[in-house]
Design a protein that fits this description.
Pfam families: SPOR, TPR_1, TPR_16, TPR_19, TPR_8. This is Sporulation related domain-containing protein. Keywords: Repeat, Signal, TPR repeat. The chain is an alpha+beta fold. The chain is 61% helix and 11% strand. Among the domains are: 109 residues, Tetratricopeptide repeat domain (Serine Threonine Protein Phosphatase 5, Tetratricopeptide repeat), CATH 1.25.40.10; 67 residues, no CATH class; 84 residues, Sporulation related repeat (Alpha-Beta Plaits). The protein starts with a helix and ends with a strand.
Length: 433
């Protein structure tokens, strides 16, 4: 009897194991239930949809694998097959998310050589060019990406950002509002819309956009800084200070408010804010000390009848080096330019747009400079850089901090570049007496 019972249990176990063996354990079924039936291979379209979902979930490698497998399944299709082009553009989008800009652009351009109006490829190429500061190329592709009825909301968002940077806030607002029609309450779009409204002096609507962006989950440091900026422009200094506090620490809040007041010509109030910033962080907040010196100088100019007040308010003040007596019997040699390194934040075709961006970034605590550069066939451009170090490694150590201030998820989206700073005189050669 016992032997019979053991044999029966063994048969039941074998049957159960056989049933398990016939069941699919494909991870694709677990990833997207109902997409694939047990034992059946996914179709290229199913793999594409699965890849799209994985990409939205941030599973880039898995998404790339499904796009490639779908593309392999279409190996016999013509090169201009729409499904093949869509999959190639999606693969390039994964590369773009991984900051592999050159590889992504090469794939986008390969698709565009076959179909110049491909929506996803134009969107991707526009994003790469915008990131590199090449606005004419970015605009060409983003306008093509928005020409289609099924345009992606991201194309309108990036076009709006580009138009704002080029000093066209009204056109930017049109593009950003179209992006919101397709993707309502998108936080980054709302934040960009607020900045465009602020550029037009529409403070109330800008304030509303920034508040909606915060509720929608926009990067808090960047958006609270923008909120503080518009509140300061509206004269709500206490509320602006509170917003700046949410964006950083107490010293940074007073420094940011002081800088806005300095730009607005409210020198006495600016001096008070910079002093408060130094009280909060006397040893670590060198920027507040520099701003305090500028505000004091501007206040003296504004109160002096011999000086023109507007000149002090509109022009950035630079520290004047102390004069020293030249050594006797010295030969004067040409100055030698210093090579420094900084972080490229943005590029603009006009100097006014670049300086406006530098002023905005200053309210976020980033000290920026505007440099003129000749891009040959692309003409003269103006680059906005932050940081100035002789050692590029010192600059790279600041990438994470700057990316956080700008609201970027990945510091590698920023570029470290070299530039020439003010020349220094060569050491004098003394003549023997």
């Amino acid at each position: 009897m016992r032997t019979t019972l053991i044999s029966l249990i063994g048969l039941l176990l074998l049957a159960a194991l056989h049933g398990c063996a016939t069941m699919t354990t494909d991870a694709e079924d677990l990833a997207m239930p109902g997409l694939a039936q047990s034992g059946n291979e996914l179709t290229p379209d199913q793999r594409r949809r699965l890849g799209d979902r994985l990409l939205e979930e941030g599973r880039d490698q898995a998404a790339y694998l499904h796009f490639q497998q779908a593309l392999d399944a279409l190996a016999g299709a013509p090169e201009d097959d729409p499904a093949r082009l869509d999959l190639r553009a999606r693969k390039a989008r994964v590369l773009l998310r991984q900051e592999r800009h050159e590889a992504a652009l090469a794939e986008f351009r390969a698709v565009l050589r076959i179909n110049p109006d491909h929506v996803l490829a134009n969107l991707g190429a526009g994003a790469v060019y915008l990131h590199a500061g090449l606005h004419p190329e970015a605009r060409t592709h983003l306008e093509r990406a928005t020409a289609s009825d099924d345009a992606d909301w991201r194309a309108y968002q990036l076009l709006g950002v580009l138009l704002s940077r080029e000093g066209q806030p009204r056109e930017a607002i049109v593009a950003l509002e179209r992006a919101l029609e397709r993707q309502p309450d998108q936080p980054e779009t709302l934040n960009s819309l607020g900045m465009a409204r602020l550029m037009l002096g529409e403070h109330e609507t800008a304030l509303h956009a920034f508040r909606k962006a915060l509720l929608a989950g926009a990067p808090k440091q960047q958006t609270y800084n923008n909120l503080g900026l518009v509140l300061a422009r509206m004269g709500h200094h206490d509320q602006a200070l509170e917003a700046f506090r949410y964006a950083g620490d107490e010293a940074g809040a007073y420094n940011n408010l002081g800088y806005v007041l300095l730009l607005q010509g409210e020198f006495r109030e600016a001096v008070h804010c910079f002093r408060k910033a130094l009280e909060q962080s006397p040893t670590h907040y060198a920027k507040a000390f520099e701003n305090l010196k500028q505000a004091r100088m501007a206040m003296r100019f504004a109160s002096s009848p011999e000086q023109e007040p507007q000149a002090a308010a509109s022009e950035p003040l630079q520290p004047v080096p102390a004069l020293t007596s030249a050594p006797r019997n010295a030969d004067i040699h040409p100055a030698e330019a210093l090579r420094s390194w900084g972080i490229l934040v943005a590029s603009f075709p006009t100097e006014s747009a670049a300086r406006a961006e530098a002023d905005r970034l200053a309210t976020l605590g980033l000290e920026c400079r505007v440099l003129r550069t000749d891009l040959a066939s692309k003409g003269i451009w103006f680059r906005v850089l932050t940081g100035c170090h002789a050692d590029p490694e010192q600059v790279r150590a600041q990438l994470a901090r700057v990316a956080g201030i700008l609201g970027l998820d990945d510091p590698q989206r920023l570029f470290v570049t070299s530039f020439e700073t003010a020349p220094r005189p060569s050491p004098p050669v003394r003549r023997a007496l």
